[in-house]
Specification:
This protein has about 475 residues and is of the alpha/beta class. It is about 40% helix and about 15% strand. The chain contains 18 helices and 11 strands. It has a 9-stranded mixed β-sheet, with helices on both faces. Strands 5-6 form a two-stranded antiparallel ribbon. Helix 5 runs parallel beside helix 8.
């Protein structure tokens, strides 16, 4: 396999873009990445387009990449559409890397675009059902009872809430009377009805009724799986909600330094703990927000990098690994997908976890960062909470994790998240990250997982990147 380099990377600021289309967001990042690389559409030989929700939310079930890029004059070249749940963007990057590494192409592009935000919150959370085995969703709902809290869990939660009572925050929306209240109720009823009919016709009304009992319009039942995993880690290894809050607060701080982050405000450890509980021990501040976004990357062979004169900003891909989860019981006794794939990535790169200077990891919740820090070998299994508590993962620490703010604060528009990680690492390795710059950043790692199939993520990518070689 040939050496491959990232010569362009870009992301828009993640957020809520109700007024913009997938095509609009695509144009924003494609024009941005061309400007970053100093290239044009004529330099690209193949493109991989990442998106998960356009079919569900907008009806564009097929040829998404061709539709999104045609207005930009990108046509004729091979365009492949990628859907791999939350790992879609990193999978598109892997495929673009493989196209160059194999010798088939000299230059390729990966683009990830997603619109998740919708005024119909029920539809947003219903869209996540595509990340499970939908034919078995009724069985999944039944299995979720195994993730419910025990009496001991409830006692711990009540004690926690006594220590950290919810703070009254923000201005409450003014109601002008019965009319506004009635409008809200009618909208909620309509939103539920729309989703009920759409899902009922697709998977069966009996399954929809079963699903509706497992969650509400602003709470995905799958957060209970994250909560369960965090509680099990607390019981087995002694990790604490305070450590999770430390992780979340750190990521919120990092995002204040990132102009592309959806959230750009600090959240103290105390405020993370005093926030609304989503699924014990996870509070709202410990969970990624809903939003839209787009990100992209351009990859080239070494010969093309030299031809284009891009050596000074070309970031080498030392390893690109894509894998799938396996069927196994829940627990900490067997290596998880992140641990298995990271070993493959380290072997491919000829490096070890001690060589990594910074990382972007998949933190749909603060517990996700804690667990992946362990799986990636940055600390021993069971010590992720204490590792974060020590300050090791903050800017200036031993190994800064999610200097972008991560999914928790940068945002998590599914099809774009993996490529946003690549953009952050490329920016850091070029030394262009400004106030959030990691000092002496030479080697960086990205981990991005997606989907839920049993005890593990259905898909995961791990990439290891190296800074441009210095002249002289």
């Amino acid at each position: 396999m040939r050496n491959v380099f990232v010569v362009g990377a870009h992301t828009i600021r993640f957020g809520k873009y109700l007024e913009k289309s997938i095509k609009d967001l695509t144009a924003m990042t494609v024009n941005g990445v061309f400007a970053d690389a100093g290239l044009t559409k004529n330099d690209i030989e193949a493109l991989w387009f990442s998106n998960s929700g356009w079919g569900e939310g907008g009806g564009q079930t097929c040829i998404r990449g061709q539709v999104a890029t045609r207005p930009l004059g990108i046509d004729a070249i091979p365009i492949s559409n990628v859907e791999n749940a939350c790992a879609s963007g990193s999978t598109a990057f892997h495929q673009a890397w493989m196209g160059v590494a194999s010798g088939l192409y000299e230059s390729t592009m990966a683009v990830g675009v997603e619109k998740l935000y919708d005024e119909n919150k029920v539809a947003v959370f219903a869209g996540f059902l595509g990340g499970i085995d939908i034919e078995k969703c009724a069985e999944l709902v039944q299995s979720l009872t195994g993730f419910q809290m025990t009496d001991d869990d409830r006692r711990e939660m009540e004690a926690f809430r006594s220590r950290y009572p919810v703070k009254s925050g923000g201005k409450k929306k003014k109601r002008t009377g019965l009319t506004d209240s009635l409008k809200e109720k009618l909208k909620t009823a309509r939103d539920n009805f729309v989703v009920f009919i759409r899902l009922g016709e697709s998977i069966g009304y009996d399954k929809v009724i079963a699903l509706s009992k497992a969650g509400s319009g602003d709470h995905s039942p799958f957060m209970d799986v994250y909560g369960f995993a965090a509680r099990q880690h607390m019981k087995k290894f002694g990790s604490t909600p305070e450590q999770l809050a430390k992780i979340a607060s750190k990521s919120h701080f990092h995002s204040t330094l990132n102009p592309n982050a959806q959230y750009q405000f600090p959240v103290s450890v105390e405020d993370c703990l005093a926030d609304r509980i989503v699924s014990w021990p996870l509070t709202r501040s410990m969970c990624a927000p809903i939003g839209d976004g787009a990100a992209s990357a351009i990859l080239c062979s070494q010969a093309m990098v030299k031809k284009l004169g891009l050596e000074s900003r070309a970031v080498k891909v030392r390893a690109s690994i894509l894998g799938s989860g396996r069927d196994r019981p829940f627990g900490f006794d067997e290596p998880e997908i992140g641990e298995r794939l990271s070993k493959l990535a380290y072997e491919k790169a000829g490096l070890g976890p001690q060589d990594i200077n910074l990382a972007e990891v998949h933190d749909a919740t603060a517990y996700g960062e804690l667990r992946q820090a362990e799986n990636l070998g940055f600390c021993p299994i069971g010590e992720g909470g204490r590792f974060a508590e020590s300050g090791a993962t903050k800017l200036g620490g031993k190994i800064p994790i999610n200097p972008s703010g991560g999914l928790l604060s940068r945002g998590h528009p599914i099809g774009a998240s993996g490529l946003a990680q690549i953009h952050e690492l490329v920016t850091q390795l070029r030394g262009e990250a400004g106030k959030r710059q990691v000092q002496n950043a030479k080697i960086a790692l990205a981990e991005n997982g997606g989907g839920a199939l049993g005890a593990e993520e259905a898909a995961m990518c791990i990439h290891i990147l190296e800074a441009p070689a210095k002249k002289g």
